[in-house]
């Protein structure tokens, strides 16, 4: 990976347009155009990709060039692949061409934007980074600013990663990520948002979902609320929006979460199913199998599903109820946890986090995107809490 970083810096340093952009670059001018979305608010439509990821379309540059990206609630930054790419994955849209944008500006080393990224690399006064994506792979890119137009937000200059190399094999079409994490380089921080919300339309309807920024982020009825877990700046959880799960009700069974293993990360980008610590999952699986009313199929469909049922036998399946700290209860209907895989079969889309075999996730739980369908979730950074309520996400505007 180090060799890729050196290569990209040589490419940029040798380009006349790169050198010209670096001379006289005024960071304050680049920052001035950034949108304060809390003032007027904005709405960003996004959709389910064929692989069932949440993807938004937007434009970068002057004149605008089309791009698409995963909406990543836990993402650190905004990035897209660029035309200097020497080892990148295939995407559906044309790759962003920095030289074709009159507003593209690579960041010199030492600026606030360069210092704010997770892993800055500098050579020849060009700021670059080497970061880990939500897919687990690495991306290497030039740190830059350019004009973004996303949803109903006014075009604004934002810092982003102009990726020129990665070890990702495929992303199924999108060109990058839009990170919403609590980091200086995320869309949330750059737009100076104190609140945002989203509502996922059911994946099988073909309807758009919505991301609401700033003043547009509000629930119709106030909703239930739960506080974010308190973190410190040096805590590995500080860039996320962790909450605490107290218990899960499945049929007649109530499963109490063990202390120290009840933190939940809400996910939008890569993790579509929910994952529970293994001890809880084993109890949960037994409770669901007892309450669904149908015997599991003898041969599961296969990865990633472990437990499957004949579709005709689950008409009496109960709602699940996830109760979080402060009593906030999320009701998950059968359609949101029994996933239709075809062939008259549905599978349990809640699994053990042990399947990932990732030490860093030991003791954590994940609320996947399938279980969030038709729920409007509001993230309030001033009040440090998550609010949510049932909603017809396809009809919100």
Characterize the structure shown.
The chain has 8 helices and 26 strands. The chain has 397 residues and is of the alpha+beta class. The protein has a 6-stranded mixed β-barrel with strand order 2-3-10-4-9-8. Strands 14, 15, 16, 19, 20 and 24 form a 6-stranded mixed beta sheet that branches. A hairpin with a 4-residue loop joins strand 2 (54-60) and strand 3. It is globular, with a radius of gyration of 22 Å. Residues 54-389 form the Peptidase A1 domain.
Question: What features would you highlight for this structure?
Answer:
397 residues; alpha+beta; Cathepsin D, subunit A, domain 1; six-stranded mixed barrel; six-stranded mixed sheet; 8 helices; globular; disordered N terminus; signal; Pepsin-like_plant; TAXi_C; Peptidase_aspartic_dom_sf; protease
Widest beta sheet: strand line-up: 2-3-10-4-9-8
Strand content: 35-45%
Radius of gyration based on Cα positions: 22 Å
Biggest sheet statistics: 6 strands, mixed, barrel
CATH class of the largest domain, please? Mainly Beta
CATH superfamily of the largest domain: Acid Proteases
* Poorly predicted parts: 1-34
Work out the helicity level: 10-25%
CATH fold title of the largest domain: Cathepsin D, subunit A, domain 1
Give the count of structural domains.
Answer: 2
> Which of globular, elongated, flat, extended, rod-shaped describes the shape?
globular
Which CATH-level-2 architecture of the largest domain?
Beta Barrel
Distance between the termini: 43 Å
Separate helix tally: 8
């Amino acid at each position: 990976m180090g060799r890729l970083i050196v290569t990209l810096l040589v490419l940029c340093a040798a380009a006349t347009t790169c050198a010209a952009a670096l001379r006289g670059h005024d960071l304050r001018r680049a920052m001035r155009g950034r949108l304060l979305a809390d003032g007027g608010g904005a709405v960003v439509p996004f959709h389910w990709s064929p692989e069932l990821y949440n993807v938004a379309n937007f434009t970068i540059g002057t004149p605008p060039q089309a791009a698409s990206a995963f909406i990543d609630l836990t993402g650190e930054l905004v990035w897209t692949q660029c035309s200097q790419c020497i080892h990148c994955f295939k995407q559906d849209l044309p790759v962003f061409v920095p030289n074709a944008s009159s507003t593209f500006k690579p960041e010199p080393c030492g600026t606030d934007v360069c210092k704010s990224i997770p892993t800055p690399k500098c050579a020849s006064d060009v700021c670059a980074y080497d970061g880990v994506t939500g897919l687990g792979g690495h991306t290497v890119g030039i740190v830059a600013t350019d004009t973004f137009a996303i949803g109903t937000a006014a075009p604004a200059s934002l810092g982003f990663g102009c990726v020129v190399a990665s070890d990702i094999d495929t992303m199924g079409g999108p060109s990058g990520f839009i990170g919403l994490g609590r980091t200086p380089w995320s869309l949330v921080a750059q737009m100076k948002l104190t609140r945002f919300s989203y509502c996922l339309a059911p994946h099988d309807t073909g309807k758009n979902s919505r991301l609401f920024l700033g003043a547009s982020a509000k629930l119709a009825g106030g909703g239930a609320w739960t506080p974010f877990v308190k973190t410190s700046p040096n805590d590995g959880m500080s860039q996320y929006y962790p909450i605490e799960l107290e218990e899960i009700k499945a049929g007649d069974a109530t499963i109490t979460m063990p202390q120290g293993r009840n933190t939940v990360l809400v996910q939008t980008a890569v993790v579509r199913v929910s994952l529970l610590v293994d001890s809880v999952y084993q109890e949960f699986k037994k409770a669901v199998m007892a309450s669904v009313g149908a015997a599991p199929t003898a041969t599961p469909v296969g990865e990633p599903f472990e437990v499957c049922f004949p579709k005709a036998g689950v008409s009496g399946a109960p709602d699940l109820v996830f109760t979080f700290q402060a009593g906030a209860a999320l009701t998950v209907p059968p359609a949101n946890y029994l996933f239709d895989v075809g062939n008259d079969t549905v599978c349990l889309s809640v699994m053990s986090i042990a399947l990932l075999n990732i030490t860093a996730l030991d003791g954590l739980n994940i609320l996947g995107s399938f279980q969030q369908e038709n729920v409007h979730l509001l993230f309030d950074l001033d009040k440090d809490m998550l609010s949510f309520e049932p909603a017809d996400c396809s009809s919100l505007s």
